[in-house]
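Retro notes - structure team

What went well: the batch runner handled both jobs without manual restarts.
What didn't: labels got mixed up in the shared folder, which is why I'm recording both outputs here explicitly, each with its sequence directly above its tokens.

Job 1
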Amino acid sequence: MFLPILLLCAIVEATTLGIQGKNFTVNGKPTFLLGISYYGGLGAPRQFIRQDLDDLKRYGFNWLRIWAVWNVFGDDVSTVDKNGNPREPYFRKLEWLVKECDKRGLIVDITLARGTLLPTQQSHLRAVRALVSALKTYRNWYIDLANERNVRDERFVSFSELKELRDEVKRMDPQRLVTASGTPGSKEDLRRYLFDAGVDFISPHLARNPQAPRETEGITRRYYSWMEELGRVVPVHYQEPFRRGYTPGWEPVADDFLLDLRGAIKGGAGGWCLHNGSQRDTPDNKPRRSFDMRERRLFEQLDEEERKFLNSLPPKSLSNKEN
């Protein structure tokens, strides 16, 4: 008679991501998703990952973004091969990471991207099927079907292809949340994300310049105004804002990150990410942060300004939201 009780406890304790209007929910409660980039995490030793996940919780983060196809600095940690089939040991390591996050109440963004590692629609479909099938029992993750799908290079995924990918996810797992990162540049463009592709929320990638932190609130409000006019309102999720080490002549400081985060919250966004990556202006691109964690874990690679931002969390603007 004790087995059903144990199973019930396991179900209750599982971390479940959902959506209510323009808000995300975690275990049924409206929750602002405050997260961090963890792109090459599958290349990190498991002990590094455990320590980073514990630090995530300590600083008040509740989600992370990891890539399912990642080959940077000569280290291919992709979970699938170029045909979209599972690739070990990284495929099972992703499942382990999702499980570790589930135990800690953390949400996971699993991102796919069209390109040299996933070159065709058919390989893309197989990758989607493999991931959804293997991770179906976990409710603490969503899938970004195609990173920056609107960029007209090898990353490009058409709306018709995106719909096919989305429909395959929903066929296998109707409640799984899906998005496709890119920047809706007009109300018509946004309509195609919402109705043609049928994403559950939008994940715009905005500008990376000194003006960006001051523009986020207004851009967010514009998206919601368009959605009201279109008749479907979903969360706006900033999973990849500006970062340090990227823009020549501009290194955002802690106050820039805070301003951008507060602008997202004031505009009504559902989530925001402390984006981070390699340093473009150093010979070895170090610190590489989330792009390469083989030698040092993420929180050991964050620099002074990023740590200053961490020590300011949670900001006062989050005081009326779950974090």
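Job 2
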Amino acid sequence: MTSQTLSSALEGFLGGSSAAVVMEDGAVVFDLERAKYSVSGENNKCLLHLWSEERNAVRRVLDVETKGETLRLMVQKFGQARATRLEIHRERDPRSASAKRMARASYQRVLERALKKHFADWTLLQLNTAMDLERSFGPIYARGMMKRGLSAFAVLGVNRQELQSSIDASLTFGILWLDSCRSAHTGKLVIEGLKLFIPRGCAALVRERAAHLDQSAAKWELYELDERTDECIGLDVLDCGNVNTRLVRCPEETEIQERFAEPIALVRGLMSEAEIAAVSPAEVSFRCHGLEFARARLTAAPGQPWGMPEIVFGAGPEERVLDGRTMPEFQTLIRSVGEVRHAEGPHECRWWRLHPERWLESLVVRNVTALENQFDPRFVYSQVPAFYASDRGMIDVLTVTREGRLAVIELKADEDIHLPLQGIDYWSRVVWHQERDEFHKFGYFAGREISGDSPLLVMVAPALHVHPATDILLRYISPRIEWAVLGIDERWRKELRVVFRKRP
């Protein structure tokens, strides 16, 4: 196949796959809901460039093969002669429905054997994976109970073939299952806590989250289960080791404005209200109410120590380099986005509906005191620290109160059952950096003294889109986390206004 043929096949498949995932060596490496890509078929080479907040990859494509909803690529990494396989799946879990049922039924038998083997003095009550939509339980997790006398434990397990995001989410459903067991057996059994079983080598995020649960509310027991041998190893949830996090340096605003003066002037000439966000010292993002439509990045150039700025554009996963040939497309894109991406825009339009959380984030960054008057509007950072153990790359908003206390703001534009535990993810990592005084070291909160008090955790969602399970999950969070849930007016695009506040 020629480079042009390969490029056409790639672009044709990816063009209709905005929610696809890219897998390499059996693991998801890019999620096209949050990542970007570009395809080049020039110089007799087909190059696929993929990048996100966490990683960057360029592969030379040698061959492509379509199998149903999967595109299989034979690719080469730079500097390596051996070809490897890359797969792009339109569906996040490409298994058939029957394959999922078989894997879950098999796992249920494995878990039952392991429980009887390792907890012989406990009586296992029936495990099941039945749907229970009223209480948010689906077939992914095997659920049951173990009892000994009047004492009992809720049990929940998840198999290795499920997506890592489902494994990471198991603690949310484990807490809900524990609470459900307690409600169903009030006055009959004392449900001491939860025994949660995770595939071997997959428990890092769950373990970090469990460390910040209320140890007096329940006993939290976490196990890694080897499905081949039925062996399980108990993990100490209070001994997490190093938190898997890093902090990127805060770009210096004046330098960014000088370095990217020409691209900024070009974009502002086409859309005066465009938001400009520094992604790094070598890259800036151009957005309209949180929707990124272009980036300027530095590319190598002779005699230029920082390189020369280059603009790439595209409001979806695909991005193209701006040049004389693509300028009309760039102008059309900006005009199309600007005409509909506003509070009164047509709700059915794609540009209006895309990335509502980023839209909400842009409003919070612009007017953080609309949430709480105690926040200091001079120090508001969005999408900054990178969290590699999580299914999300960045914290939504980090700010500070007028008294100098850090505040972590987690935003949801739609109903999300995982809001409290995702909030814990970001809160715990901010604590990690705070204890090492890394915010000042990396250029954040310059000239502002930071209190030694632990950060506030503020969770924000439209009032009618706070998940019903949120109250249950919050009851099990460690009391040392001071949290607040803010319900905002459903018409938040027009006006950011809090209509209710909930605290412990």
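One thing worth noting from job 2: The first strand starts at residue 21 and ends at 24.
We'll revisit the folder naming next retro.
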